[in-house]
Amino acid sequence: MTRLRITGGAVHDPANGIDGEVRDICIENGRIVASLPAEAPVLRADGMVIMAGGIDIHAHIAATSVSLGRRLLPEEHSLDPVPAPALDDGSIPRSGTGGTVPSTFTTGYRYAGLGYTTVFDAAVAPVAARQTHAELDDTPIIDGGFFALLGNDEYLHRQIAAGETTRAKDYAAWILRSTGGYAIKVVNPGGVELWKRNVREVKTLDDPVGTSNVTPRRILEVLAGAANDLGLPHPVHIHCNNLGVAGNVAMTLDSMRALEGRRAHFTHLQFHSYGGERGKSWSSAARQVAEYVNAHPEVTGDVGQVMFGDATTLTADGAVEYLLHTSTGRKWINSDIELETGCGIVPYTYKDKAAVASLQWVVGLELFLLSSDPWRMVLSTDHPNGGSFMSYPDLIRLLMDRAYRDEKLKSVNQKMLAGSALADGLAREYTLNEIAIITRAGPARQLGLEAKGHLGVGADADITIYSRDADYAKMFSTPRYVLKSGTLVVEEGQLRRAPAGKRIFVRPGFDDALLRDLGKYFEAYSSIRLANYPVTGLRGAPVPTGGA
Amino acid sequence: MSDATRIEENVTCLGCGCACDDIAVVIAGARIREARNACALGVRWFGDGSLPGAIGGGRSAAIEDVLREIATLLRSARAPLVFLAPDLTCEAQGAAIAIADQLHAFVDGVTSSTAADGILAAQRRGRASSTLGEIRNRADVVVFWAVDPSVSYPRFQSRYAPNPAGAHLPRGRRDRTVIAVDVGAQRGPEDADVRIQMTPEEEQLFLASLRASLAGRTLGSSSIVARVSELATRLGKARYAAVVIDAESPPAVASGRADSLIALTQSLNATTRCALCTLRAGGNRNGADTVLTWQTGFPMAVDFSRGAPRYEPENAAVARLTHGAVDAVLFVGNTNEIPRAVRDALGSVRIVVIGPRASESTLSAQIRIDTGVAGIHESGMALRLDDIPLPVRAVLPTPRDTASLLEALGAAIAAQAGAA
Questions:
Q1: Residue A334: closest CA among B60, B44, B272
Q2: Is B29 domain-assigned?
Q3: Helix A513-525 with A154-161: angle, nearest 10 deg
Q4: DSSP label at residue A8
Q5: Which of these, A68, A245, B125, B200, could form a disulfide with B184 (CB 3.0-4.6 Å)?
Q6: Residue range of the domain that includes B159
Q7: Range with top average pLDDT, A422-431, A539-548, B104-113
Q8: One domain, residues B322 and B348
Q9: Are both B389 and B246 inside the same structural domain?
Q10: Does pTM surpass 0.95?
């Protein structure tokens, strides 16, 4: 029986209404308990700050697309060799490489080193889910799950075209069940299929995708409905049409309005909050998006902040990556995947001397600073798209330290910033509790993870302890202690143990009648057998769903 | 009931990179009697499933002792090489790479001496590609560049393209145009609709001329330009073109084929859609590249000697062996399928083989442990030539599971390192 009492630290546990109060945290067998006998071992955290382990709701860390990205970047990896850590838990440590798309072991070690203990891969082609599980098996410490791509799936589109929304829902359930996924992901609804048909622009939510019965709007409605009817812990996770395009705020707000009143998550909103006009002008439209989200409690979002420096854009949104390739001249991967989805990858550098990158940086910060409810607008960089997860501490400093932010703002390209809220002056500084919300409590609530993101009795003992520092970037980049399921993985700032993480998945039910129809579809069009599609042998218990 | 016949359905074949997963394996008396749906190559790959189960060359017959001996041998080497031969699951490949990491060894596989050109070109340029299911359902123009899949990838045409009907090609073969590009003796399929021929010496200029033509320029003699413009016109008119090349069969005369075709297929996406499809041979070769990539960041030729991965594609296994820069090799997998260049470069280096038929390997190995073949005797994951992961399943028992054995070897190495 492993027990530990953490004592003397200021606890920031917003889910339980605790804001900096000094109190004990008691751990037994990997979970937080109400009390422990007096003789239980003690970890002194006097003067330190205690939060739940960080939760990344949207990153790209384990997927065929991620490994295609890794393969594309030998020069980056050569510049960042990472020797195996010295572990004292008897496990054999592994070396790796870093850069913006680190190798799997390094990904696990580095997330844990930042105090993050749960990460979701945001875009997995269902047909390749097996590889995601294999990569997560090689990503130590962190608990992991993923979102299954469904917005451009031929079988789904056929059901929508035929008005078979119940079967579409059953199919979504079958996909999650077969792949061991956690949530439904939509990327550029309909737009990836159109890219495969050489149609490169989605102008409105009502553009036809092959047939007028299938439109981005219908895809959003059907999948949002499916997620909610199935009672999935996380609603449909939406990457809107026209990512990265000037003037795309109209499409973003249309998408939100299309789902008004229904639970939905809109991801990396920074990339979807631009005013101006395609090919002509750019401006920030963060205020419009923040105002919509503020007024609609059914909507959640994450920011997708851009951080200056190297990034790798890596997405199921193949069409966008072609544009980025032609505009930057940098190398480019496209992979169209099995009538299901797509994939595009281009390395990218956000420069503070560049007008668009500076605007993107400002738009992201504005979304943070103008959102009134941090529970519903959480931190992400869409790693590695807007920047590596390793830049989170600097992002936290930008949010907590106005002087630092204003100083940085002066040094960026001002060309497109006229009239932006940040340029006009935003005084808000995030508090420690608000940081705890946007990096752990908020993502946990958005994801429906009841045992994570807080420090109440029954929670997983995923805990991060920081030494206070006036430089918040420093404070958040080197936690003093990190516990994962009650195991001390970081001690005195050093990684010491690397237990395997758990898998987080759902197993919703569906009507078996689906399989007859799906069998015919596979026979006609699939390059693999239906029987070989499902991933088997997942360990652990699924997160319960509320539906039938 | 050992004589009872049973049939295992939906078995994945790793006879080539097509990884057909519709094989029905008929088993009786612990032997494979038939591999239904398999091509001739697949039938040969499955064989009858019989395997030796020996442990040879060690001073003891007990597996724990032999693993300790291997650990000692590898740990005493100054510059060990871990070589990923074909017929391993991704799980076994991962366990072998872990041992290389532990030993600060060099790890490599068959790719660096066979299909490296295309991978290196893709690392410079990226690539526009698609999975086989997209080609099956979408590709209306299919170019076979210096490859006739019927020889080394016998079911490619019937399963993927051009023969099947697809979601966007209801009439199958009749909805597609097949273009054979013959480069000398490397000929495209016999029943192509269009045939374009060149000598190996012409290929480089042809490729340059083709790329120039798509950029609106003219390059080369009128004879070349005429052939180029026919191909360029057909590619430009395609709704979704697929260009198929064989990574295992490099050009007879250096032509920059992989690099040029990557650039060509990428640039076609300015006006239409186009994907490059690279054929790979069997035994889960893409798996080795991909597992190495996710574990180290590099797809082949990884040097752990400084304690972290370094990429050495210019100084890969064959070069190192040839220069005497390797003093012990752990081969994992089927050594009958290693490239000749590797075999020839081995010299008198100390060798350990862990894999199917290790005891019968023609390599002069000190220690040999027989294990099973991925997808016949061992279960796990393997990647198709387009990187789609598929389950592979044991239909017969393995003498001992490769991945588990390698994990035990890793533990033996760690124990010795800890005691030292």
A1: B272
A2: no
A3: 120
A4: S
A5: B200
A6: 116-279
A7: B104-113
A8: yes
A9: no
A10: yes
